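U., I forgot to send this yesterday:
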Amino acid sequence: MSNILVVFYSFSNTTKKLAGEIAEQTGGDIRELVPEKAYSFNYNTATKEVRNEVERGYCPKLLSGNESVEPYEYIFLGTPNWFKSFAPPILSFLRNADLQGKTIIPFCTHGGGGIGQIKINIEKECPKSTVLSGFAAMSDFDKQQVTNWLQGIGLF
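Result:
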């Protein structure tokens, strides 16, 4: 087993694709967060659902992804950028996993909003963890961008 875990939530498989690339390049294990209730596939409806959940700090029940992170030292944490923050399933993970002493490395996919407040919001939820600089990618990212980021954070 690796000491690296890549945890992600993906709405439209873009974040899933990025998580897979990170896992491949780092040799890390991969884990998808699956909420009990899926978001609407209608963009306008999903946007309303998500905005409400993000604003009130909602933590959806997870069907999978909440297994122990005890054996891992590094947790790559991936999400779409939703309203400058992470998706609610990420909040569920952060509040249920024991991340004390872990190094968390955020990454996100976005349509123009970059990393937003994702790193800052993770730091608020995980004050006893080290949170490294994140990576923000649009859907057309390439492998070299991921490689450059991984080299830039000094882990690989």
